[in-house]
Each structure stands twice: as structure tokens, then as C-alpha cells.
Amino acid sequence: MRLYALCDQELLDSRAISLEEFIETAKSKDAEIIQYRNKTADVAFIKLQLIKIRKIYNGFLIVNDHYELIEFCDGVHLGQEDLLSIDTETSRAVAIVRSVIGKDKILGISTHNEEEVLQANEMDLNYIGLGAYKDTSTKNVPKTLGDSLDSIASKSKHFVGAIGGVSLSDTFQYVTYHVIGSGLLK
């Protein structure tokens, strides 16, 4: 199992966990990737957090949404809604983001079903997040994929990170990364 740790600032704040504590926990579990997500702060604060993470973590650092901060990390992750805010067609949105961040940076997007996975196969991506696998207390998910997640993952030409309700003990055949946020802290 390979670990992709999702560091969500809102979750950290709600549980009174410092950024440093989360990073140390992720490192102790051999996280290869940390994604920093903050849906409410301004860009200046997010930049400072990325710089802080970079000082204490040597793995891959991904920023959620804020591709304008690409110089402070190794890549960017975007959800479907975020892509649609860039362009009404997700493939064009991905092309726009790729043109901004360059070929040497990591680019990933969230997918939720087979159709989105097949569309992602035609995009210049490094990975996809696929889910939600199970219900999660940290995000409202209208539909979970459950046991069908692995079958859908098999259709991806990109690396796949299982997202949403994933635990360290879950097993998958076609999933490259377990994307875990709050479950990492248990």
C-alpha cells in the first residue's frame, strides 16, 4: 500500500491539530505524497503553509486548487467543480492548467465514476483520485463506489488514488495510492 496523505486545514483546525503534527504523522506512516487543501484561506496563507510543509517534509507536495502556487510545490490537484470553474469542458480546463504548471509538475484530478475515468484517460494527467470509496465524515458524498471502485480503477491509464472513506487496512488490486486524511489521525 502506498500512502497519499490529504492534509485538510479545516479538519486540522476542527481537531486542534497543528500542521506539524499532521506532517509528522504522515511521515511516520511513510506517506509518499502530501496534498495540502484549504478551501477558505487566502492565497497568501496557503503559500505560507506550503513553505512550512516543504521545510519539514521531503516527499511530493501537492496543492489543492491553487495552481498559481505551483512554484512552491510539486503539483496540483483539482476537483471536477474546480475544473469547470476554469472552463466548461474539463479536458480544456486540464490543458489550460497543464500549460500553466508545465510538463515537469504533477497534475491530478478527482473522478467519481467510469465515465469520468475514461474522459481522464484522454487528458495529460499524472494521476486521478477515484471515489468516494465509502462514506466519510469529512465530506458530503452523494454516492459511494464501494467494491466497484477497483473495477473502475482498472479502466484508468493513469495512477489511481482511492479517495473518500479509505483506511490503511483497505486492499485494492488496481489502486496505486490510498488517499487518507482524517483516517490517518486515528
Could you characterize the architecture of this molecule?
By secondary structure, the chain is an alpha/beta fold. It contains 7 helices and 8 strands, in the order E-H-H-E-H-E-E-H-H-E-H-E-H-E-E. Helix 7 (148-153) links the parallel strand 6 (127-131) and strand 7. The longest helix is centred in the N-terminal third of the chain and has 14 residues, at 43-56.
Short overview:
By secondary structure, this protein is of the alpha/beta class. The chain has 7 helices and 8 strands, in the order βααβαββααβαβαββ. The protein has helices at residues 9-14, 19-28, 43-56, 80-86, 90-101, 114-120, 148-153; strands spanning 2-8, 33-37, 60-64, 75-78, 106-111, 127-131, 159-163, 177-180.
In whole angstroms, the N-to-C terminal distance is 18 Å
Compute the gyration radius: what is it? 15 Å
Instruction: Give the low-confidence spans.
Output: none
The percentage of residues in β strands lies in: 15-25%
Backbone structural class: alpha/beta
| Helix/strand order, N-terminal first | EHHEHEEHHEHEHEE
Strand arrangement across the biggest beta sheet: 1-2-3-4-5-6-7-8
Q: Average pLDDT, to the nearest integer?
A: 95
Largest sheet: 8 strands, parallel, barrel
Overall 3D geometry? globular
Number of E-state strands: 8
What share of the residues lie within helices? Answer: 25-40%
- Distinct helical segment count: 7
